[in-house]
Specification:
about 240 residues; alpha/beta; six-stranded mixed β-sheet; four-stranded antiparallel β-sheet; about 30% helix
Length: about 240
């Protein structure tokens, strides 16, 4: 079922997306015709079994992979028409990504990691903004610490600060609590949802945890490369 958002200009508009990868056994169909609209400010949980295509969809939305067929517009850009440099600018300007494994540069301090996307964009206030972002996630006392000196929860908070520092319109979170214990994971998710409300950011959350998905007002279930269900729900607060 395609439960699309009816706004005049959705932030994300995908039509019949397919994604194939090559392997020793030939071509493998990961996504087999995904269509959806996601509006500004929505919080969408994407769930489904391992191998169903959830992360592949996120990679397409981030412009980190290209769809095999179909059309994909994100934040007014036709991603299929963008070259690599334009895709890199698109990610810097419009998208923040939080991965399960943090993806911090180990030889850079917390503030350097957060400032990095702003530096690439030529922002002269990169470090001032990065410091403010780290303070907003409770890490003002960890500015000069390296990832190896931080706990898993602190590293993910750095990753969240980096994702939000450029005020993107879209946050993509792929199993952001997968490497954290339950209490730490809940704390990180509270932070993620609080920042999403504060900035009015669209959030797409990939998770195996039904309780986390239930915190979103919309849930999309992907199975075997297709949308099996797409429903609006009443968000459930964290316990």
């Amino acid at each position: 079922m395609d439960n699309t958002n009816n706004s005049a200009a959705p932030l994300i508009a995908a039509r019949e997306l397919t994604f194939e990868v090559g392997g020793s056994a030939g071509r493998v169909n990961i996504l087999r015709g995904v269509s959806l609209d996601i509006g500004e400010g929505e919080a969408v949980g994407i769930v489904g079994p391992s191998g169903s295509g959830k992360t592949s969809l996120l990679m397409l939305l981030a412009g980190l992979e290209r769809a095999t067929t179909g059309t994909l517009h994100v934040a007014g850009r036709d991603l299929s028409a963008l070259g690599e440099d334009a895709l890199a600018r698109f990610r810097r300007e419009e998208v923040g990504i939080v991965f399960q494994s943090f993806h911090l540069v180990p030889t850079m301090t917390a503030v350097e990691n957060v400032a990095m996307p702003l530096e690439f964009a030529g922002d002269p206030a990169a470090f001032t903004r990065a410091e403010a972002a780290l303070r907003s996630v409770g890490l003002g006392h960890r500015l000069t610490h390296y990832p190896g000196q931080l706990s898993g929860g602190e590293q993910q908070r750095v990753a969240v600060a980096r994702a939000f520092v450029a005020n993107p319109r879209l946050i993509l979170a792929d199993e952001p609590t997968g490497n954290l214990d339950r209490a730490t994971g809940l704390s990180v998710m509270d932070l993620l949802f609080d920042l999403r409300v504060k900035f009015g950011t669209t959030l797409i959350l990939i998770t195996h945890d039904p309780a986390l998905a239930a915190r979103c007002e919309r849930q999309i279930h992907i199975e075997d490369g297709l949308i099996a269900s797409d429903s609006l729900t009443l968000p459930v607060a964290a316990e």
